[in-house]
Amino acid sequence: MKNRVVWRSLVVVGACLPLVGAQHAAPPQSAMPGAALTPQDSALHALNRLAYGPRPGDVPRVAAEGVMRWIDRQLSPDGIDDDRLAERERRFDILRYDRGDLAAMYTAAQRERRERKLAAGQTADGSDSAGAQHAAPLPKQADPMIPKSNRLANEFADLAVVRAALSERQLYEVMVDFWTNHFNVYFAKGADRFLTPDYIEHTIRPRAMGKFQDLLIATARSPAMLFYLDNWESVAPGTSPPFPLSARRRGGQGVRPVPKGINENYARELLELHTLGVDGGYTQQDVIDVARIFTGWSIERPQQGGDFEFHDWAHDRGEKLVLGVRFEGGHDMDEGIRLLKLLANHPATMHHVSRKLCQRFVNDDPPDGCVDDAVAAWKHSSGDMGEVLRAIFHGPDFWAAANVRAKVKTPLEFVVSAARAVAAEPDTSPRLAQVVARLGEPLYLHVAPDGYPEREAAWVNSGALLDRMNAAVALASGKLPGVTVVLDSIVSAGDPDQLIGAVNEKILSGTMSENTKQVLRRELAGIGDPAQARALAVGLAIGGPEFQRQ
Amino acid sequence: MSISRRVFVKSGGLALVSFGLDPLFVARAAFSSYEPLPPHAACCRPVLVCLFQRGAVDGLNMIVPHGDPIYYQERPRIAVPEKDVLDLDGYFGLHPGLAALKPLWEAKTLAAIHAIGSPDATRSHFDAQDYMESGTPGMKATPDGWLNRYCQHDREHQDTPFRAVAFGPQLPRILAGTAPSLAIDDLQAFGLRAPQPAARDRLTRAFEELYAGSATGLLSTSSREAFDAVQMLKRLDPGQYRPANGADYPRGRLGKALLEIAQLIKADIGLQVAFADVTGWDTHVNQGATEGQLAGRLSELGEALAAFTRDVGERMRDVVVLTMSEFGRTVRENGSSGTDHGHATAMLVLGGPVNGGRVLGKWPGLDPAQRFEGRDVAVTTDFRDLFAELLARHLGARDLSAIFPGFVADSERFPGAIRG
């Protein structure tokens, strides 16, 4: 056993050496699946990285089509028919509401909440609510909006899982997840309860495979981001809203005071996280001037729909200097647009975002060659994400043996790939999204602006691993309500060796280790009921170590 | 079987290290050399229990400066009336919701630190929580939390899977990092789930062997930690636990978390650092005075801590409990009979080693001229001074500079929470 580990690591090291050399010798466009990978291996690798893992039959299908041709099709998602998903999406109520509807629900709930709280305060002492809190198994949520908003939030999280599982445009869904995480907002922060669905549907999704600059500008003016990072209340010092608005605010009960100055939150995260990166060479003075440029980028009141609104009264009319570039005052919103274009095409941004893409698609420790290829494509294409991705997938690092199965699936990747492996049919109930949450990365609920990390240490830990095993066993035995699994069409029940062979081929795409085969053989030996044996074999395979890697 | 498995994984880990692969795995592998503890070897090790009051607790209504007329002037509707305050030292007093803690104060095992907080001025919950957990105020990029860094740098401690445990569904920022730590949402449900114990054992063994045989890298070390923990818990049989000395924990997440922490402490399975969240402190509207929202939260906290102390009993001589919160709240009440985000707050430390019966820290006063930005209690104790003191004087940490990078820990500035 000990010897085998040593031997394996030797093979890994040995195998990657020639390729590391080749990386510098071969121009990226000539790189194709490495000689070391069979067509099946290449298809599996591509399906693990550009997609949420293979469904039964996907590996031979992609291998037969030719993996590079399949990748090219994934890079042009509009050309891929996705009717089955479209049909499924129609079952989701959340997609029937626009931002205005959700805003109206939100303000109604807020009003109700305020009235209830005031009533509680006036009657006695609110001790009954405190008492309830005391007795309840969970901290009591005072917000009466919670049931409805929670239902919608859960449904919306489930929609992400269903899309990832069922869409034929797999790479597109992976990129939606990537950008949702890169431009993170927090669903549970106040108005983001109603702004987040609109943000995902109309800001992120239409631009996930387009130009970075367009996506950056769209996020900058999205109400969800303006609220999340407080820019909506950032105003030039000494300014105040014109009479009717300020009067209304002063008269309102429990309404926030009128903001008094700039808020740097968005400015800082724009530079540190969205564009240049923490070592991107900007200063605190740059942050301040960026914040000044974005003064006045705000939001309508929820009663009016909560759309983007530029408040010229709040805008700082002075001159600003960012990264040595002068922004003459008095150009209102144009200053921000000009700045976003500058940032979107800044070399530090290209490097920072390319590096994250290489982390996502190639290795947690992204190879320099991958980043260089991506940056070069970014320059040629003015930040066209399709071209940047094409360069990554055509580069030698993507196919290097050292990077194959080198990543551990994230919670979302694990849950969706498990559902796909058994061709599960999820309905609109949030069970799969709840499993994702239990494994440590609840959708739309990462509180800090950095999004979930792209490194395995963030999600591999003992408790979460046990939960993966439990989820696998539950899924395989059909015990996740809301998720229909019919194993008959995938693995026919047979004697243990046939069963193990079928599970290896269909669920693990041939990656099952000798050890796993031995353990399965022994565990299956005592089980008379074929359906039970099959559920156990599938559960152990999905919860086991091979399936955690991609 | 389990010994040979450990040896196997350990040597496998070393083999990989020597090839320079996977730096994260290398970091974890450094912790993989522990052996199961002999019975009671872990007894009497110091334990630190951290409770995070998420949402920013109003320090002024928790530890009330009832001797200052400004407190009453600024809070006409929400000040705790003089007659209701449980006086501590003639100037400060406990909120009546914390009455269950008064005996601990009398026994000098409870202290409060007032006007403590972050050197960073942010009033954003998520930034301030992030800084308090990373231990690096103002620096967003810090990858790990300070409790995890303590575990990374103090390797004298014999590791067990239960050395650092967070009670909740997810591992919090404060425990994130390369040293192994567990997130346990429910001690009884930790491990594989199956209808009968026999099926559960069988499933556990099958997965254990799958991972022992073919897992690599971090999957290997994490799965080993997981199965070691499952084995230890099985012996512990948490379903059968009954609190000692008639301790009666309040229902709810906090009571449950503290009960499970008490259980692990008494089981002597190597718990050194425990962490749990307590939510519900963001009292912008109708926070109440003697009774009300905040009073309800405080009485749950007080009763839970009192039950914990009673349950842990004798072993409290090795235990320190710390409460922390990201910032305090405005001195003046707002238009909705609540308080808005402020700056300094108060923290509690309790336990046998605590230098109790006193309010520690330099009190800046409530005079507007002394306030931070004219509105909030000023910070006179950097939270790292208190955290560093607990790590150094209670847990015996030696290298504080590695745990709080960019911060020069100086025992002269320690607030004096631990008896010398």
Report on this structure.
The complex is a heterodimer of chains A (550) and B (420). Chain A has a domain at 411-548. In chain A, 57% of the residues lie in helices and 3% in strands. Chain A has 27 helices and 6 strands. Chain A has helices at 2-25, 39-49, 58-65, 67-75, 83-89, 99-123, 127-135, 146-166, 170-182, 192-204, 212-220, 223-228, 243-251, 265-274, 284-293, 332-344, 347-361, 368-381, 385-394, 396-399, 411-421, 431-438, 462-476, 496-506, 514-525, 530-543, 545-548; strands spanning 297-299, 308-310, 320-322, 325-327, 425-426, 483-484. In chain A, the strands form 3 sheets. Chain A has a two-stranded antiparallel ribbon. A two-stranded antiparallel ribbon of chain A has the order 3-4. Chain A has a two-stranded antiparallel ribbon with strand order 5-6. By secondary structure, chain B is an alpha/beta fold. Chain B contains 13 helices and 12 strands. The chains are: A mainly alpha (550), B alpha/beta (420). At the A-B interface, helix 1, helix 6, helix 7, helix 23 and helix 25 of A face helix 1, helix 6, strand 7, helix 8 and helix 9 of B.
Please render the helix and strand layout as text.
The complex is a heterodimer of chains A (550) and B (420).
Chain A: H1 2-25, H2 39-49, H3 58-65, H4 67-75, H5 83-89, H6 99-123, H7 127-135, H8 146-166, H9 170-182, H10 192-204, H11 212-220, H12 223-228, H13 243-251, H14 265-274, H15 284-293, E1 297-299, E2 308-310, E3 320-322, E4 325-327, H16 332-344, H17 347-361, H18 368-381, H19 385-394, H20 396-399, H21 411-421, E5 425-426, H22 431-438, H23 462-476, E6 483-484, H24 496-506, H25 514-525, H26 530-543, H27 545-548
Antiparallel strand pairs in A: 1-2, 3-4, 5-6
Chain B: H1 2-18, H2 23-29, E1 47-53, H3 59-62, E2 63-64, H4 69-74, E3 86-87, E4 93-94, H5 102-106, E5 110-117, H6 125-134, H7 146-153, E6 164-167, E7 182-184, H8 197-214, H9 217-236, H10 253-266, E8 273-278, H11 293-312, E9 319-324, E10 345-351, E11 359-360, E12 381-382, H12 383-394, H13 400-403
Parallel strand pairs in B: 1-8, 1-9, 5-11, 5-12, 6-7, 6-8
Antiparallel strand pairs in B: 2-4, 3-4, 5-10, 9-10
Helix pairs in contact in B: 1-2, 1-9, 2-9, 8-9, 10-11
